[in-house]
Predict the structure.
Amino acid sequence: MSYDLMVFEPTAAPKDRAQFMQWYAKQTEWSEEHSYQDHAVASEALQAWFKEIAELFPPMNGPLAFKYDEDADDSKVTDYSIGRHVIYSGFSWRIAEEAYPKMRELAIKHHVGFFDVSATNGEILFPTQRVTTTESRSIEPIKRAKPWWKFW
């Protein structure tokens, strides 16, 4: 079992939680006609997010795959499944507390959505435009739930 998180292209996903969960189920059928190991199939924003996260949590497969050798630390190697509108990340449980905040932080930075797959009723975030003089962007929560391991 892995600790699973997902980022997504916000223009492709419904904002209603029930509809989002149906959309998520469809996305994770992995029925698109391409390899799910190459980030080039994803949107520009998802590609930018992936390039940055891959520096911290290198992919197991694909063009940016981790290079295994005797001296390499492979504790952060992550299994990614990359679709046109989603990047699904399967982390080792021992790095879950590090992976969650970094993945969320980079989702905000790159203006992509974020979904905590492993949590019951997990957090779903969408980027939104705020009408201000600087036209800043932020992330708007749909439903925020504590990760299951933070039970206190």
User: Anything to note?
Assistant: Residues 75 and 130 are 39 Å apart (CA to CA). Residues 96-110 form the longest helix (15 residues).
